[in-house]
Amino acid sequence: MTKKTASRLVSALLCILLCLSFCSCSFSFSLESILQTIKSYISGDEAEEKPADYVGSGKNDSFEYDLYETYAVVTKYTGAAPYVTVPSSLEGKPVAKIGSLAFYYGQKIVYLHLPETVTELEENALYYCDKLTTLELPSSLKKLGEKCFSWCTSIQVIALPQGITEIPNFCFNECASLTDLFLPENVTSIGNRAFSGCVCIKSLAFGESLKSVGMYAFRGTTALEDLALPGGCVPADHAFDGASENLTVHTPADSVCDRICLAQMVRTDNHAGALVPVGTDENSSEAEG
């Protein structure tokens, strides 16, 4: 099983296990032990060869980590403190990545600061940090993995640095308390269900660099009323399914994005929902169909 395939499998299993954990039934297994076993597939502990530049692994009082020739990767937070500052270096190597599931379900972190050496959050890096309320991201950050903030249900504000160009699949999935998301101007793509379940966000604005929006990207964004998209952006089929009935997409008239919104019966500055042009009497013949 490849690391990518295992990672996708684990995401589905984690969702199932999280649902089970909310049930009132008693289980004869340890959820923590199962999650740890699953994590081994992503972290590479099970039949996954390390890259050629891998040097070794280490741990201290708060973290487990992998060392490479020129950088280090935090693979697990093992401390008990709710306020966490990731060090800029480990054994003399700059911390460049936060590994998959490094702060996964079960942690009680409320504050997390990442150093200016970090360039990547791997897939599921902060998955289900449901107590996290404050997140300080470095300006050095360039890449977000799928589901990296998924189920961070308590966080209200996230400021993405300017180096981020892609918002991957399920990136902010079920960030149910998120009200303010500060986006860089050069985002080029929004993945499938990137904002699904973000029930508190009222407005989002993307710059001219945005080219694509994935399926169900705004599913469950029940408070979203204003969404600014450039004219050249191409929303996928069902991109707006399940979004707020009060949503208005702000995009240039007769642009590619405007025409797609019209076809998907999404209100824009230029057309009302259900294929009704703005200012048209809904009882007129133009409103039919």
Description:
- The protein has 289 residues and is of the alpha/beta class.
- It has helices at 3-21, 31-43, 256-263, and strands spanning 54-59, 63-68, 72-77, 83-85, 89-90, 93-98, 111-113, 120-121, 134-136, 143-144, 157-159, 166-167, 180-182, 189-190, 203-205, 212-213, 226-228, 234-235, 248-250, 271-272, 276-277.
- Strands 1, 2, 3, 5, 6, 8 and 10 form a 7-stranded mixed sheet that branches. A 4-stranded parallel sheet has the order 12-14-16-18.
- Helix 1 (3-21) packs antiparallel against helix 2.
Determine the fraction of residues in helical runs and give it as a percent range: 10-25%
Task: Report the end-to-end length measured between terminal Cα atoms.
Answer: 50 Å
List unreliable stretches of 5+ residues.
Answer: 24-29, 274-289
Assembly type of the shown chains? single chain
Classification by helices and strands? alpha/beta
Number of strands: 21
Radius of gyration: 21 Å
Shape: elongated
- How much of the sequence lies in strands comes to 15-25%
Number of helices: 3
> Taking all residues together, what is the mean pLDDT?
85
Largest sheet: 7 strands, mixed
Order of helices and strands: HHEEEEEEEEEEEEEEEEEEEHEE
